[in-house]
Amino acid sequence: MVWRIVALTESVALNWNSDNVGAYLPARAPIETIALLLDLEHELKKHIAASDIDALNALFDQSDIATRHKKWIEGNPESEAINVITLIDRMDKRTGSGVRGHYYLMSERCHPNYLGHHQLYGTLDVGTTSFSETKNIERHRGCFILGAILLLLLDEHCIDGLDNEVDRVAALQNAYCAFRGSLKITVTFAKPKLPRGGATKVPLGASRQTATCERLPYARKASTRVGDEDAKA
Asked: Is-cis flag, bond preceding 26, omega within 30?
């Protein structure tokens, strides 16, 4: 994802520095990528909170091999990608940024519609039409292209959020490997030596935390150190 975002942003910069309104095309694509990353972060945190390792695996698989290719979907229906408009609508609702309307106007200029050909490049003057790739370039830069690029701030925040969840995903995976023969796994994160003896949810970044795992239908319980290479029952 990061490689894609960097490549698209470099393409925007090349068109921007050349005073070319063609920057619309590479500027719209990062909006779609950011919408996907934000949705991935949201779903990841939800599945971690539910300790649902199967849902996490499905989420990672779907995000890696997602496609809209009909023949591929016929053979692997679980790989069907979420419609990008759905992702953008979710981002718009969660951020309250109005990104859906901005994306719509950029799409009109990326498609071969009036806003994407004559209005974007053409100027009518007393029966004569002239065309230029720099028509109203400052307006396009300030009102539309720059607005799309500023969304990269959300992308950086999202990637940082995903990085922060790596340890929690690893802890769930370790617990799953240790108790994979069970029917159900319940994982809670707690600091050792709590003053009142209770378990409380805390960030995994704290030191000396443990994962307390319960496997059913057995009543037996075991405690493992988060991050140990071998979980001990």
From this structure: no
| Collapsed DSSP state (helix, strand, coil) of residue 78 | helix
Distance between CA atoms of 66 and 72, rounded to whole angstroms?
10
Closest C-alpha among 144, 151, 135, 41 to residue 102: 144
The whole-number pLDDT of residue 194 equals 42
Residue 114 has pLDDT above 90, yes or no: no
Neighbours of 136 (CB within 10 A): 14
Question: What's the chain's Rg over C-alpha atoms?
Answer: 24
- Taking the C-alpha atoms of residue 205 and residue 203, their distance in angstroms, rounded to an integer, is 5
Q: Of how many residues is the chain composed?
A: 233
Provide the residue type at 60 as one letter: F
Measured between alpha carbons, how far is 145 from 26 in angstroms, rounded to an integer?
A: 9
Q: Residue 194 half-sphere exposure, CB side, CA atoms within 13 Å?
A: 12
Phi, psi of 124 (to 5 degrees): -95, 125
